[in-house]
Amino acid sequence: MDWELGGGNMNSVRRIGNTVTRLAGPWTPTVHRYLTQLWDAGVTGVPRPLSIEGDREVLTFVEGEVPEYPLPDWVWADSALGEAATRLRALHDASTGSNSASAVWQSAAHAPFEVICHNDFAPHNLAFRDGHVVGVIDFDLCSPGPRVWDLAYLATRMVPLTTEPHEGAPGEDQWERRIQLMLDRYGSDLRVEEVILVAVERLRDLATFSRSKALEIGKAELNDHAALYDRDATYLEQTVPLG
Fold first, then answer.
1. For residue 6, what pLDDT is reported?
2. Distance from the Cα of residue 236 to its chain's centroid
3. Are 28 and 43 in contact (CB under 8 A)?
4. Which residues lie below 8 Å from residue 221, measured CB to CB, with a gap of 6+?
5. Residues sharing a CB contact under 8 Å with residue 118, sequence separation 6 or more, in sequence order
6. pLDDT value for 7
7. CA-CA distance, 239 to 118, in Å (whole number)?
8. What single-letter DSSP state applies at residue 169?
9. Residue-wise pLDDT tens digits, 153-174
């Protein structure tokens, strides 16, 4: 069993039996230490690091269905959003106390350094089984940051706070309710307005990062992603009262 897995925008990912190999980078040893810490803390449903062989890392394969775009209808269920928020809280809580911004990370760290942020915690990096969240993959972009940094991005992708039409997705009239649902399941006392404010900042930051990666790895389609992030940020600024 050896084939390339789809869905990756910034890496070459292959499954070989019950393992996954990916291109490694200077940040890979840091990510492996973090993943090991998650397992030591009792967090399951995440890749277990096995080795770094030449220019590739080897990890265990996380069983489950990782949805690709266009996302299936079951991704938009309230239960899926709540389970994602609960799993994000588990990742964050297991990472407190080890979030050194001085380590080598692929993504920039963002103060305050409360936890290790996944930085791409969204349906395309969640493993589902029968519509339930059972795992999380693709930790390449993780780095220290505030809890709200991940919460805000999850909101953009899974509430979803986007101008891009997703068939079957909840509409704008559901934004406030679903953000509050996400916060309640995570266990946060943040206000909905605070999440949206950070979502704008997060989208701008992601647009800048995507453009830099488009140049670095020669994937021009990342510029299209950046343009979408900018459109979504502008729409949130113009549509949602953020005073």
1. 53
2. 20
3. no
4. 9, 214
5. 88, 91, 125, 136, 139, 141, 142, 150
6. 47
7. 28
8. -
9. 999 999 999 988 888 999 999 9
Q: Which tokens hold the place of 48? A: 């277990």
Tokens describing residue 40: 């030591």
Q: Is the pLDDT of residue 3 over 50?
A: no
Name residues whose C-beta falls within 8 Å of residue 166's C-beta, 6 or more positions apart in sequence: 70, 71, 76, 160
Q: What is the mean pLDDT of residues 120-129?
A: 98
- Cα(44)–Cα(7) distance, integer angstroms: 22
Residue 138 tokens, joined: 């693709």
What is the pLDDT, as a whole number, of residue 243? 53
- Would strands 2-4 and 13-16 be described as parallel, antiparallel, or unpaired? antiparallel
The beta strand positions in 71-155, using DSSP E, are: 115-117, 126-129, 132-136, 143-145
Kindly report the average pLDDT of the chain as a whole number. 92
The secondary structure element, H or E, covering residue 14 is strand 13-16
The identity of residue 53, as a single letter, is E
